[in-house]
Amino acid sequence: MKRRTARQLVRLLSDIRHAAHCSTLRAAATNRTMALAAAERDADAANDAASDESAETARDVREDKPARSGS
């Protein structure tokens, strides 16, 4: 096995720490993105439900109005 100098070992340790830090940041960013996407999907579903409900209410109001005569 090849012997490494102290400088090489320090550089290798620095690279390992940097890689671990980067993977931790990537994982945190991925988790945050997934949470935001889920929250956005829930908000869209709530908006769709609210718009469906308002459309049904408007349809009910139109059905209750008496028809105007053409005369």
Automatic annotation (TrEMBL):
Bias (Basic and acidic residues): 56-71
| Alphabetic keyword roster | Hydrolase, Protease
Which top-level group of life is the source organism from? Bacteria
UniProt keyword annotation of Protease present: yes
Q: Cite the residue spans of the region called Disordered.
A: 39-71
Q: Which GO terms describe its molecular function?
A: peptidase activity
**Biological-process GO terms, alphabetical:** proteolysis
Put simply, this protein is called Secreted Zn-dependent protease
Organism, per UniProt? Paraburkholderia terricola
